């Protein structure tokens, strides 16, 4: 597995086009892997995420079985005369994950749940739109995903309820975009609600966490959701 970071040049029209459409970004990402096809199976796959740290500091992160070639993205959305992109061998890091380790993490996800408005209606996937429910969505999945979100010490909590975890939800977005790449095929609109989670976790099941880091968490992985990354606790 490989972990790649690419900085987007946000003053270029190509970068703005990619950032405005998850479908366009997905196509650009997949064009970096001529031998890897999109997959919905529970196997290592191409995951990506955009981190908007500041107006002029926007990074594309990718986790992939194969090493990418981002030459086409440098040409349309990067700095041709600057360092291109950084790709690291992810496998040694994944193999060192150990139960009890603590890490800072970031995840952009598409928190949804199934609801039924009437008893005789089929269930329908609906987005969680509040931070409390989006946080609850992640907490419900942590055990199966191989980690637990760490709790705050009682003296660090600012609220008597709902402030128990070392977890923040930010960059919550509702996106609507055209899925079709060609006008001749007609428009197919996709609506998506995403949220980014920053927090600290403890590894409870290294094997399950490795699967989470390489296959993603939740839905809408083709549109920049599901990629969790870890960093040393500062």
TrEMBL record:
InterPro entries: CRISPR-assoc_prot_Cse3. This is CRISPR system Cascade subunit CasE. It comes from Spinactinospora alkalitolerans.
